[in-house]
Amino acid sequence: MSSGSVTILVVEDSKPVRMALGAALTAAGYGILEAPSGEDGLQQADGAGLILLDLGLPGISGFEVLETLRGTSQVPVIVLSGLDETDAKIRALDLGADDYVTKPFEPGELLARVRAALRRHAGNSQPDSVQVGPFEIDTVTGETRRGERPVRLSPMEARFVRMLAQRCGQPVGTKTLVQELWGADNPEQRQALRVLARKVRCKLEKDPDAPEILLTEPRLGYRLIDAEPAAAG
Ligand code: CA
């Protein structure tokens, strides 16, 4: 898939990180805008098709940038965070970030996150189905098939899979999942979510203990792996 003419704004105060991000994105065909501060980032945001946003910035923080942006814009935002900043990631997702990338980042993973975020925002057109590994998942019903063979999911499992498929390749927070699936967020429902994920893994994964399709985002939620591009023609 061509990156087209998408311009990505990198808001990051560390020059080495900015340069590494710029190199990875330029190599993949994206245009780059750079901002060393949140203020600068907000000024350039109009020109961006996607924003990579560091959370720890001098002056206004990445959180403030995100909040300000979300007042007027649905531009995809991927936050850059440290390894052990789970609370910051959760807060950023709650504020409307689409995803996060943990520093130090793997270029391949970064690009996969960027593609997933751009695809989800492309014209707001949610595809009717996504191809995830060997499975085709209907994003309206959660119906899942492997080739011609339907995977037998309970109604609850199908709703769970549907929610993840609608944000294919992006994290979906535990709170969001539990509230939509059960209407309330409490420890019992969070445990029920773990049981539900386990059941789905038993149906989708070669080894449910080493998932390759339905990934756990530690302390945060779940993520379906990035969808494969639709077959040409
Ligand atoms: Ca920083």
Q: Which terms summarize this structure?
A:
2 domains, Rossmann fold, alpha/beta, five-stranded parallel β-sheet
Question: Could you explain the architecture of this structure?
Answer:
This protein has 233 residues and is α/β, with parallel strands linked by helices. It has two domains: 3-124, Rossmann fold (3-Layer(aba) Sandwich), CATH 3.40.50; 129-224, Arc Repressor Mutant, subunit A, CATH 1.10.10.10. Helices cover 39% and strands 21% of the residues. The chain has eight helices and twelve strands. It has helices at residues 15-27, 38-44, 62-70, 86-94, 107-121, 155-166, 174-182, 187-204, and strands spanning 7-11, 31-35, 50-54, 77-81, 99-102, 129-132, 135-138, 144-146, 149-151, 171-173, 214-217, 221-224. It has a five-stranded parallel sheet with strand order 2-1-3-4-5, with helices on both faces. A four-stranded antiparallel sheet has the order 6-7-8-9, with helices on one face. Strands 10-12-11 form a three-stranded antiparallel sheet. Helix 2 runs parallel beside helix 3 and helix 6 (155-166) packs across helix 8. The two termini are 14 Å apart. The model has no long low-confidence stretch (mean pLDDT 91).
Map the helices and strands.
Elements: E1 7-11, H1 15-27, E2 31-35, H2 38-44, E3 50-54, H3 62-70, E4 77-81, H4 86-94, E5 99-102, H5 107-121, E6 129-132, E7 135-138, E8 144-146, E9 149-151, H6 155-166, E10 171-173, H7 174-182, H8 187-204, E11 214-217, E12 221-224
Parallel strand pairs: 1-2, 1-3, 3-4, 4-5
Antiparallel strand pairs: 6-7, 7-8, 8-9, 10-12, 11-12
Calcium ion is lined by residues 13-14, 54, 56-57.
